[in-house]
Every structure is written in C-alpha cells, then in structure tokens.
C-alpha cells in the first residue's frame, strides 16, 4: 500500500490547475465578437474566473492581431506586462485600425497569488467604415409617390457575378425607412427593424453582415425590401407622417475579398432595379401591415429571375457624414409564446390570449383559399364585459391584414411594424382557431440579462416579472414610453426615472450610449432637451424638469454602473449645456420658475391635468428647482471624474446656491416642505437639499403622510423612483416595505392583484369595478413605476455599489419579518455578484458571492460578531467592525455564507415632527 502523500502528489497538479485563474468573457465595447465597430479606439474587457478567494489581478498582457495565429508580423498591439488591476474598458492603443477589418485579440493575467493565466481563447472585433470616403455606394430611390401618405413597401435587386475564390465578404447597409436585405433568396442576418431609430437628419446607423457563406460561384443576386418605418411613416400622436422624408431609399455596399488579395465592391447604383408591386401593400409602426400573398414575386432575390418589368432606380445624394456604425445591441426576435386560451367574447369576437402583455407580432400559420383575408387586431386588455378593448390605442390601428395565396399551408409574420398586446382578435380565419395557428413573437433590443431578483412573496416576484417585461416591451432600439398606442416615443422622463433599475435587469450600457447621443443631437443650441428623443415634436417646445435632466442623470448612472468614463466624455457638452440653460433661466435667485411642464406626472389625483388638486400635489417650481440642484451636483461630480477641476468647483457652487434657495423658498424652520407632499420630501431628501439639522423632521413628515394614507403612496413619475429609497436611507425601511406590500390603490401591487403582466402607466389603469380610469391615456405597458426595482435590489437584497463599476461592492441587506428570504444576482463587468438572505428557525443566513478583481464590505444586520459563523465556523476575532447596523466584514472575491441568531428588527419610530 502506497503512503498517503503519494496520492496527494498525484492530486497536486489538479489542485494547482484549479487555482490558476482564467481570463474569459472577453468583450469589445461591451459586445461579444462585434462586427461593424466604427470606434477608432475600442475598449476591451474581460472577467477572471477562479475558485480562489481574495483574488485580484496584478497585471495583464493584451495582444491584438489581424490573424488568429497571432504571428509576430500580424500583431498590431502588444501591451507587454502592464502592472495594474484594470480589467474593464481598456482602450486600444496599438497602430491605427483600418476600416472593414477583423482583429483578433487575447489577454492573459497575473494575480496576487503568484498565478499566471494562459492566453485566453481568441476573441475578435471587426471595424466598420471610419469615414464617408470609405463608402463607394450611392443612395438609390425606386420610383414611388412621395405625395401619398400610404404606399406599398418597395423591392430592389441587382445581379452580379463571382468568379474567384472568396476569403470573406461583408454587406454594409442602411436605409431611409426600415429594410430587410436578401442574398440569393435568403434573408441576410437575423436582425429586425433595421436600421433602428435615431435622429435621422443627424445620425443614421448602418449594419454590417458577414455574407461569406451566402455567396456562390457564378451569378448572385442581392435584394432588399424597404418599408416606411419611423422615417417616412406616421410618428407622434399628432398624426404627422414623413417627418424625416417622403421617399424611401437604400444604401448598400458589398465588399468581397478574394484569395488573390483583390477586393470587389458591389454597390447600390443606377443599375439597380425596383418595384412597388410586391406583397406588402401597407406598413406602418402604428398601422400594422397589409400583406397580399397573391402578389408575392417568386425568386425575386435569386438568379434567373426576369426583372424586365422592374424600373431602374434614381440615384440620390445624401450626407454620408451622419452615418454611424451600430452602437447599440441589435433588435431581435427574442422568444416565442403560445396561446393559453382561445375563446369567443360575449358579442362573438374570436379572441386569442397569450397570457402575457408583450411587444412584437404574431406568426400566423393557415391554409385556405386564394383571396381570403384574415384580419388580426391587437389589444392589451379586455373590458369589464370580456370584450376586445382598443380605445386606449387611440388612432393606432395596430392591425394585420393577410390575404392568402391559396397554396397549401402558409406562414406569415410582419416585416416593418410591431404591436403591444396580450390578446388578438381574429376575423376571417378559415376554419376553427387552434393554438398551433398562432405564435406571439417577442421583439426587443437583445440586451443580455444581468439581474435576477426573487423572494418568498409571490406577488413581489410577480411585480419583478412585470418590471422586467415592461423593460422588454419598451426597450426596442430606444426607450419608448409604451409599445401599443399612437405614441411609442422616446420620452426622456420615463427613461430617466427607470435607468437605474434597467441597469440591474439587463446590460444597457450600449443601449443608452447610443440613445444619449441622440439626446445630444436633438438638444437645442441653448441647451434645452426635448420631451422625446428622437424629437418628432416642434423644435420650439420647451424642456421640462425631470425630463430634460435625462441628459445628466443617465450618463452619470451609466458611469456608476459600468465605470464608463467615455460616456461622460461623449455627453459632457450635452450635460453642461442643459445645466447652463437652467442657470440662465433661473438667474441670481436660483429658483427655476416655469421649468416644470409635466410636474410630478400622474401622481395620485382624480384628473389628468388638474394640477390644482391638493391631494399629493407638488409645486412644479419646487420640482424644477430640486432637479436643477441635482443635475448641477451630478455635473460637478462628472467634471471631477473627468479631471475638470474648474467645472467641478463651479457647478458644485451652483448646487450649494440652489440648495440655499430651496430652503429659503420651500421649507419652514420646522422641516416642513411647501405643499407637504410625499414627492416634495422625497426630492428634498434624495437630492441633499435639506439641512442636516432638519433631515430627521422632514423624514418624519414623509412617514406621517404615508401613515395618514394607510400606507399608500401619492407620488408620480418623479417621486416614485426615490420614495422607498429615501425611507430606507432615513431609517424607515419598514415603512418602505409597508408601501411595497400594499395591495390596494394606489400601490405597486394593486395592478398585480388586478392581473397585470407588465407595469401600468397609471396607478389605477383598471379600477376595482373593472372599468378604465381613462380612455385616451391608459397604457398597460409603461415601465416608469417599475423603478422601485432599484430599491428591491439595493435595499431588500442589499446589493449596492461601492465604487464605479462595482470595483468595490457593498452588501447591506435590510430584512423584513414578512419575508423568509430575498435573493438577488447581478452580472457586473467583473462577474456575478450575489446577495441573498434567509431566515430559518431563528437563524439568519446570508449568502454572498463577490467576483474576482473586486472587494466588498458585507454588513450583517443586527449581528454580534461573536455569534457569527462563516461557512459553519466561528468568525475570527477582530474580523468584523461593529456599529448600530450590525457587523461589517471586509472581504475579497469568493463565495461566503454567514449565519447567526436572528431577532426580528423592530420598526423605527418616527421623530416627532410637530412643533
């Protein structure tokens, strides 16, 4: 028998391998292997995977090459060993990148345990066009009636030859309108609703597709369909059309690289042909789509097709300087949902219920006779009688009309539209409606899911489900307010209030980086930020407090979550321009009079526009001045991050002046805020406007108001995101929990109790008697009030930010006796952070995971260090710092489980507010 140390020696290599770090999760500009990056100095990030606790990166080595072999002649950047712990957003610093070129890269790291990783698996990024000169294609416009409001989609084609061996081929494409590209009869790529929505006169995205495998020797055909989309179609509820132009157009450049080193471009030019006699007879974002399958043109994008009846296109001239590579995640078909019920309403309407309010469209599978037309209408809810309800869509028809060609089983889904719906009403369907005939296709920006929240309360879990689905339904290339009615616009206030919660649920760095550039593009020369972006309203519209502040709050939020200085750099002029505008408007009194157009939008009150109604009403000038202060403070902090000390000092001085003006104008000496509303106290406390000597009393007044309403809120769009957060920060988490758990109107759980599957626009969109609060403005997929998700992650689960990007993490849960467990995970730039707590038989167990290359402070609420066990063993002496909150332990990366005796936390009594 061999001695035991022999077997240990056998295990030693395995044990060493297990401790060796691995660099993985490589991304370029947040994306995995992106194609079409038009940033000349892209940034590279990676994660460190190791089971060993307290692991920090000590150094890294990056190499970038034009060949995956990384031969010395192909390397364009090798950093050598760089002795820093940075592992996210490392700026490329090699030789100048070339346009339309693929680059491969790897990284290896050294950690603080004297371990070195191997080179990571290769990743790549591919550049797009860096300048207008890189475009050799021309804009083309098929023959079309520019005076007609509604026209068929156009179809375009060109045949070309390939006679040599191909190494690689790319298609670069964009359009005025929405387009689909086809090559040899097959759709190119899996993106939908391209090129997305931007401020088209200032910024237009193009897409890049790898078409190498789609080409063939000999004849090939490139084709495209182009529909109205946002460019030419109806936009805004003012019923306007053709806001950016009255004609559809296409720009497409195929770049083929051959084995002999030559490059051939196939461009849109005057040799292309087009027709408007195809099957898409009408399309629109609000209208839906009319599709006549009898007019399908077989083989139109394949070789051998006779296009003699098609007309040559016109060549147009547009400014290619506004073209930008895709800077956001693409819009994809994300998932599919089958019906949960098919039935007839009391009046005989045939209805299909998918069980979930969603954004996208329906795939139809049907057999019937040529000429039969199936009509599909979309709705979010049924009325109290069980009838199909579309009054809240206003002028949006949101209808699909499909005319059969009568050739066996036909499968159809629309091309250039989307709908917000849970139910469809079906007319003209041949035969019995069956589940297999209908599939709901969920469509949104393909943002990686980064956060999960779950707890012991099923209704709170349903609320989290609704928050996530509200984000899915409204993050469709831009952050829309709603996906169903004649609006679907990028309301700036909605995006502002939800951005922090959005960043927990999904990776939104690229999504907001793209959209905030449009915020800056649509910003007026004097600094005003429009109500919606892209701006489809009159450019003379004023800005509004809480809406225009998106220009400051969202970039700062993205910096906090992702440690992304570049978004601050890119948006700094916009941030500064907005605050400078307010400074000019407010003058030397530092009060922003008439700065709030919308007030605390949709706060609890009977009417929509009755701002004199006192129940929960907050003075608009108070709101405007509070946001004036907040944006000034954030701008000062952004200036500090960017090293602009002069601006940091100046705008902090502005903040201090506004703070004093706020106290003079809107506060009493006893800490009561003018108008005595929940939102007034919330903004004053959240934005640091209330003197330290009065904070306790102001918080007590807020609690007094909540309790006087029997634990109901009265906040609107601007007060709601911070309500629970402010209560927790001032020692009243139990009050915040009582608000969260309230099930009667107005509350977060009231819509859940009423069957909501997304977040509603109004607290009482559907009343208890099943009637509707308002017919003209009543969306049932409106994410703003879902901003409470931020508090759920940060306070309930305790998953908080210590330093930008989660380089340092704070774990500080706030348990409540009505929950037996709460758990949240977040996929940070460094890796997954987990914070969860569970109470079982008088024992509190807190489970935490901290990713490599980060540190954390973990607060164990109401714990005594001598009673705490870590992974089942007593905590080492002097490990924890004790204070009134409990025991705080500083740790490095790793997985930790703490347990200790638990005594229910009693509610803090409010400070006596009355004087």
From TrEMBL:
Reactions this protein catalyses: Hydrolysis of terminal non-reducing alpha-L-rhamnose residues in alpha-L-rhamnosides
GO molecular function: alpha-L-rhamnosidase activity
Domain Bacterial alpha-L-rhamnosidase N-terminal, residue spans: 164-333
Sequence ranges assigned to domain Alpha-L-rhamnosidase concanavalin-like in this UniProt record: 344-444
Residue intervals of the Alpha-L-rhamnosidase C-terminal domain: 798-870
Span of domain Alpha-L-rhamnosidase six-hairpin glycosidase: 450-795
Key word Signal present: yes
UniProt keyword list: Glycosidase, Hydrolase, Signal
Extent of the signal sequence: 1-23
EC number per UniProt: 3.2.1.40
Protein name in UniProt: alpha-L-rhamnosidase
Species this chain originates from: Mucilaginibacter lappiensis
């Amino acid at each position: 028998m061999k001695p035991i140390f022999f077997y240990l020696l056998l295990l030693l290599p395995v044990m060493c391998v297990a401790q060796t770090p691995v660099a993985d999760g490589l991304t370029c500009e947040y994306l995995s292997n992106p194609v079409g990056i038009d940033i000349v100095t892209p940034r590279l990030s990676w994660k460190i995977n190791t089971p060993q606790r307290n692991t920090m990166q000590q150094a890294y080595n990056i190499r970038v090459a034009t060949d995956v072999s990384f031969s010395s002649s192909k390397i364009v950047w090798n950093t050598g060993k760089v002795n820093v712990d940075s592992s996210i957003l490392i700026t490329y610093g090699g030789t100048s990148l070339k346009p339309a070129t693929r680059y491969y890269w790897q990284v290896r790291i050294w950690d603080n345990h004297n371990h070195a990783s191997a080179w990571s698996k290769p990743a790549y990024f591919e550049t797009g066009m860096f300048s207008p000169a890189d475009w050799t294609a021309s804009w083309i416009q098929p023959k079309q009636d520019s005076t007609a409001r509604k026209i068929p989609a156009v179809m375009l084609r060109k045949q070309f030859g390939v006679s040599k061996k191909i190494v690689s081929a790319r298609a670069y494409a964009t359009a005025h309108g929405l387009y689909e590209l086809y090559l040899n009869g097959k759709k190119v790529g899996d993106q939908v609703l391209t090129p997305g929505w931007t401020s088209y006169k200032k910024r237009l995205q193009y897409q890049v597709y790898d078409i190498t495998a789609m080409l063939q020797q000999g004849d090939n055909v490139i084709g495209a369909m182009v529909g109205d989309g946002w460019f030419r179609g109806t936009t805004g509820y003012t019923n306007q059309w053709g806001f950016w132009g009255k004609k559809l157009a296409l720009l497409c450049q195929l770049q083929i690289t051959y084995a002999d080193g030559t490059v051939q471009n196939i461009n849109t030019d005057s040799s292309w042909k087009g027709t408007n006699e195809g099957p898409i007879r009408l399309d629109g974002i609000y209208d839906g789509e009319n599709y006549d399958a009898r007019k399908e043109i077989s083989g139109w994008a394949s070789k051998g097709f006779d296009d003699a009846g098609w007309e040559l296109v016109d060549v147009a001239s547009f400014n290619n300087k506004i073209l930008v590579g895709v800077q956001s995640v693409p819009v994809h078909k994300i998932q599919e949902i089958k019906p949960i019920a098919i039935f007839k309403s009391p009046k005989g309407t045939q209805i299909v219920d998918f069980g979930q309010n969603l954004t996208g469209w329906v795939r139809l599978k049907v057999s019937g006779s040529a000429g039969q037309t199936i009509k599909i209408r979309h709705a979010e809810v049924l009325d109290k009688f069980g009838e199909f309800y579309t009054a809240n869509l206003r002028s949006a028809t949101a209808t699909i009309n499909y005319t059969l060609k009568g050739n066996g089983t036909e499968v159809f889904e629309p091309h250039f539209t989307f709908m917000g719906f849970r139910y469809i009403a079906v007319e003209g369907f041949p035969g019995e409606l069956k589940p297999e005939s209908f599939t709901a296709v969920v469509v949104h920006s393909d943002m990686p899911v980064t956060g999960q929240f779950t707890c012991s309360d099923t209704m709170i879990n349903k609320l989290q489900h609704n928050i996530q689905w509200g984000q899915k339904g409204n993050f469709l290339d831009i952050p829309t307010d709603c996906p169903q009615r004649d609006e679907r616009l990028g309301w700036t206030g909605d995006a502002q209030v939800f951005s922090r919660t959005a960043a927990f649920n999904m990776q939104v760095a690229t999504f907001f980086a793209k959209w905030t550039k449009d915020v800056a593009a649509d910003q007026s020369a004097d600094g005003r930020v429009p109500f919606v972006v892209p701006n489809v309203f009159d450019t003379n519209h004023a800005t509004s407090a809480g809406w225009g502040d998106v220009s400051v709050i969202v970039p700062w939020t993205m910096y906090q979550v992702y440690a992304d200085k570049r978004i601050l750099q890119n948006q700094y002029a916009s941030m500064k321009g907005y605050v400078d505008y307010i400074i000019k408007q407010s003058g030397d009194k530092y009060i922003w009079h008439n700065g709030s157009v919308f007030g605390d939008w949709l706060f609890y009150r009977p009417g929509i526009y009755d701002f004199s109604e006192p129940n929960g009403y907050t003075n608009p000038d108070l709101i405007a001045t509070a946001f004036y202060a907040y944006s000034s403070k954030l701008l000062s902090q952004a200036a500090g991050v960017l090293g602009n000390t002069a601006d940091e000092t100046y705008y902090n001085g502005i903040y201090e002046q506004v703070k004093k003006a706020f106290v003079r104008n809107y506060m009493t000496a006893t800490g009561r805020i003018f108008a005595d509303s929940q939102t007034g106290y919330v903004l004053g406390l959240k934005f640091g406007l209330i003197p330290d000597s009065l904070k306790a009393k102001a918080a007590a007044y807020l609690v007094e108001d909540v309790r006087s309403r029997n634990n109901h809120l009265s906040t609107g769009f601007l007060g709601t995101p911070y309500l629970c957060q402010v209560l927790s920060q001032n020692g009243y988490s139990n009050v915040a929990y009582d608000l969260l758990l309230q099930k009667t109107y107005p509350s977060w759980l009231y819509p859940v109790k009423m069957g909501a599957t997304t977040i509603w626009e109004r607290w009482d969109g559907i009343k208890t008697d099943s009637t509707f609060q308002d017919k003209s403005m009543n969306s049932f997929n409106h994410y703003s009030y879902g901003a409470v998700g931020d508090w759920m992650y940060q306070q309930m689960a305790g998953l908080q930010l210590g330093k930008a990007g989660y380089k340092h993490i704070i774990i500080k849960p706030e348990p409540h006796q009505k929950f037996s467990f709460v758990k949240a995970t977040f996929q940070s730039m460094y890796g997954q952070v987990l914070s969860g707590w569970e109470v079982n038989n008088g024992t509190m167990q807190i489970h935490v995971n901290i990713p490599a290359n980060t540190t954390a402070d973990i607060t164990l609420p109401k714990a005594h260090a001598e009673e705490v066990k870590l992974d089942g063993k007593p905590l080492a002496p002097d490990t924890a710092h004790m204070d009134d909150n409990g025991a705080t332990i500083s740790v490095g990366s790793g997985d930790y489980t703490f347990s200790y005796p638990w005594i229910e936390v009693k509610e803090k009594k409010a400070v006596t507010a009355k004087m």
